[in-house]
UniProtKB/TrEMBL annotation:
The keyword Ion transport does not apply. InterPro entries: NHR-like_dom_sf (IPR035500), Nucl_hrmn_rcpt_lig-bd (IPR000536), Nuclear_hormone_rcpt_NR3 (IPR050200), Nuclear_hrmn_rcpt (IPR001723). Pfam families: Hormone_recep. It comes from Tenebrio molitor (Yellow mealworm beetle). It comes from the Eukaryota. This is NR LBD domain-containing protein. Gene3D superfamilies: Retinoid X Receptor.
Length: 249
């Protein structure tokens, strides 16, 4: 991905640091450092007719652990109350994980495969076989949006943080959320301005237009895993169930 998405205009991270507000660079630097690594599947999972679902369930659960740690490292997030922090995560985790999945899958777009882990991808046939075709198609749509944008990793980092801050859930301290969201928007604007000096407004608009597709994916992801749980097809770990059941849009 790094080779494919080289910074436009030859800008380096050092040049970005020297060109923009230090607060916004602190945001970008923090996001670059705390981006979770791509997981590998748990080889200890039993072989069964629902093995694909078992792998996906385990990956989603472990990814959830990762985004909780990720969020806590974003400048401004821990300024929110603990209740508000949890509400944001409960209301946006599906969008965040969909964006992460889509970004990792962009290099595989010609193969029409979704990269759920470093050693596990899913194609249309596999998705249909395990009952996840709607989830697959919805996520592929987001992949196409990101590919059309030629999204850079710095834009992805900031868009992902913005998804976390863009929840419409009711919070105790809405003013703190606004401050948090505004800091991310400012960092995004500055970063795009440096990376794409001739098309700033257009790129920002297109990035923001990805968010409705992520919101749609949120519904699909939650509905899919709720059905899996209700049908008791595979075991689902406690954290995954708590996040799934805690909030419905």
């Amino acid at each position: 991905m790094g080779e494919r998405r080289e910074m436009e205009e030859g800008k380096t991270e050092e040049e970005i640091v020297g060109s923009s507000d230090s607060r916004h660079i602190k945001m970008l630097d923090a996001l670059a450092v705390c981006e979770p690594d791509c997981l590998e599947i748990n080889t200890a999972l039993e072989n069964s007719k629902h093995r694909t679902l078992s792998i996906l369930s385990d990956l989603y659960d472990r990814e959830l652990v990762g985004i909780i740690g990720w969020a806590k490292q974003i400048p401004g997030f821990t300024d929110l109350s603990l209740n508000d922090q949890m509400r944001l995560l409960q209301s946006t985790w599906a969008e965040i994980l969909t964006l992460t999945l889509a970004y990792r899958s962009v290099p595989l777009i010609q193969l029409a495969r979704l990269k759920f882990a470093a050693d596990f991808t899913l194609d249309e046939k596999q998705s249909r076989d395990c009952g996840a075709i709607e989830l697959y198609q919805t996520c592929c749509h987001v992949v196409e949006r990101l590919d059309n944008l030629s999204i850079l990793k710095e834009e992805y980092y900031l868009l992902k943080a913005l998804v976390l801050a863009n929840s419409d859930v009711r919070l105790d301290e809405s003013h703190s959320l606004k401050k948090f969201r505004d800091s991310i928007l400012s960092a995004l604007s500055d970063t795009v301005g440096i990376l794409r000096p001739t098309g700033v407004l257009h790129q920002i608009q297109q990035l923001l237009l990805c968010m409705p597709a992520l919101r749609q994916a949120d519904q699909v992801v939650r509905r899919f895993w709720s059905d899996v749980h209700q049908q008791e097809l595979v075991p689902m770990n406690k954290l995954f169930l708590e996040m799934l059941e805690a909030y419905c849009r």
